Amino acid sequence: MLVDTNENPVWQGLCDRFPEKVRVLTTGINEDELMRQTLNETPTTDGTAMLRFRQLMLDSFISLKNGPVEQTDFIAHKALKMAQQNGWLDQCVVLFSMIAGGWLKEKNTRNAIKNYRLAFQHAEQLPDSSRHSLMVQSLMGEGNAWFMDGNYRQAADKFDQSAGVAQNIPSLLLEMEGHRMAGFSLMAMLPAPEETAQHYHAALMAGLAMSHEEHDTSGFLQIFRDLLNHISPNAAIGCSRQAEEYVSERAEIVRQAERAVSLADKSGIAAVVQETNRELEEKSEALFQHTLIQREQLLMQESPLFHNLLCLARYYSHRFWTPGTDIIHPLNKPIDEWPFSPLLQVSDILPTQKYTQALFCLIFPSVQESINAVV
């Protein structure tokens, strides 16, 4: 008997080659029951009350995933009663948020908002070490509920409030995201009010205060994606479509190379592999260059405002960045080694805060300016 896993099916090739001689045996593991069994078998040193509470928390979580909201609400309130009796305020916050999430899944925003506010009220009573982070989570949850309800102004207010609380953690990431979501909420209003620019600029400032390494994992560039999509949704769609075509065409190039090697005579297979690899690299690089140039030509058709914002985004990322799906070099060559340049050149001069603020304001002009532009 040979054993592998769904995550790492090392013997799948054997199954594919000899299907008539291989019998695959699988175990029907229920993930929820496995979690329950693990919890019950884990030694605990903090008493039977905490063990019972954890069991109720787990049942609440499982119900949130799979069950009706009424069931989730019922089980979570049993756990909530224990948490309140034992003074576990942080667990009360988690449970109220869980209940709110259940109602939000059912699109019952009124009940969701009520429970997110209860979570916030309990979070306010916690010590400094955990208070602010749980307050931010509750405010963002309520903001999402207001957004789902179509009340974008209320959503923006809650996200903006979360950004202010995040400064007390302190967390530049949560501060940035709070400001960004406040702007994103206002952007859903038609027309978007001019203070949308202020929220997005505040998000930019918080993001720029992070290290360069944090930019890659923080969602910093989502600020620019939001704004560029607002100016021209079709640009991002077009870039993503070209990326999909690139992936599909490169996969076909790889299949052709594999087919050529499989048909080669064994006596000369080494030479065939070497020649095939050379052709594969050449065709892949040519396709990559063709795709990027096509994408640049597409972006050059956009407005000067779009170009200025794209250049700003590229200054903080790389010179071929776009708001659509990104593609990587087929040979993993760094950008500095690519033998071609973007059509839209990016300045090496550090953008000033005054410039970025003015640029963002151009995206969301006042109502009177919009009327004058139409006239």
Alpha-beta content class: mainly alpha
Q: What oligomeric state is this?
A: single chain
Major sheet characteristics: none
Shape type: flat
How is this structure best described in words?
The chain has helices at residues 12-17, 31-41, 47-66, 69-86, 89-105, 109-123, 128-148, 152-166, 172-187, 195-208, 212-218, 222-231, 233-262, 269-299, 304-315, 353-363, 367-374. It is mainly α and 375 residues long. Helix 4 (69-86) packs antiparallel against helix 5 (89-105), helix 5 (89-105) packs antiparallel against helix 6 (109-123) and helix 6 packs antiparallel against helix 7 (128-148). The longest helix has 31 residues, at 269-299. 30% of the residues are buried. Residues 367-375 have low confidence and may be disordered.
What attributes does this structure have?
375 residues, mainly alpha, 70% helix, flat, single chain, disordered C terminus, 17 helices
What is the compact description of this entry?
It is built from 17 helices and no strands. With 375 residues, it is mostly helical.
